[in-house]
Design a protein that fits this description.
- The strands form 2 sheets. The protein has a two-stranded antiparallel sheet. Strands 3-4 form a two-stranded antiparallel sheet.
- It folds into 2 domains: 39 residues, no CATH class; 132 residues, no CATH class.
- The longest helix has 45 residues.
- By secondary structure, it is mainly α.
- It has 7 helices and 4 strands, in the order E-E-H-E-E-H-H-H-H-H-H.
- The two termini are 23 Å apart.
- Helix 2 packs antiparallel against helix 3.
- The chain binds zinc ion (ZN) (2 copies).
- The site of one zinc ion has 8 residues, from helix 1.
């Protein structure tokens, strides 16, 4: 078998993605790997494009979620100020603010992780919710407000995350342009 990229050279390995033969140069020059195995030139380029799409959609979803957080964060601060300057007490001003901050987590619910607990554990919780509706509700409300408190931290974490994805996109673009140059 000959190398798919260098038709005059004998293949020493196969592309982990399409199975085409690849020569030592192509093995050493691979940019991406699948299961620690090298890829042919064409697959290197295609994987680079796939990564680009994946990172860009990650960036889009992180930006949307950050936007929701920032809007609800500002909304919460406004609610706090309005309540505070009115005659509402500090407690209700804070609760109003935290309620808005908690709404910022809406975006996170769309890509919630699947429930990996055992069926038994899930059934147990469902039963507890039926048996103790009030304490379950109070627990959930408490959880909501505690989660809401972390809203400012979430915004910071998302901004750091966005920066990280931007760097991944830039690194991946560098690789893509190198593959292009080497293919010419
Ligand atoms: Zn291939
Ligand atoms: Zn080759």
């Amino acid at each position: 078998m000959k190398c798919i990229g260098h038709s005059e050279v004998d293949a020493v390995s196969t592309c982990a993605r399409c199975g085409a033969g690849i020569c030592p140069d192509c093995v050493n020059g691979t940019f991406y790997q699948v299961d620690n195995k090298p890829l042919c030139r064409k697959c290197n380029y295609e994987v680079g494009l796939e990564n680009d799409h994946m990172f860009k959609s990650m960036l889009r979803s992180k930006r949307i979620k950050t936007g929701i957080f920032i809007v609800t964060f500002i909304g919460g601060v406004v609610v706090f100020i309005v309540n505070k300057t009115g005659n509402a007490g500090t407690a209700s001003a804070v609760i109003g603010m935290l309620f808005c901050w908690g709404l910022g987590f809406i975006g996170n619910f769309f890509d919630k992780q699947p429930d990996n607990r055992s069926a038994k554990a899930q059934a147990k919780e469902a039963l507890r919710e039926v048996k103790y509706p009030l304490s379950t509700l109070i627990g959930k409300l408490l959880g909501f407000f505690i989660m809401a408190l972390t809203s400012p931290l979430q915004i910071i974490a998302f901004l750091i995350g966005i920066n990280g994805v931007k760097k991944q996109i830039a690194d991946n673009n560098t690789i893509l342009s190198r593959i292009k140059v080497e293919n010419q």
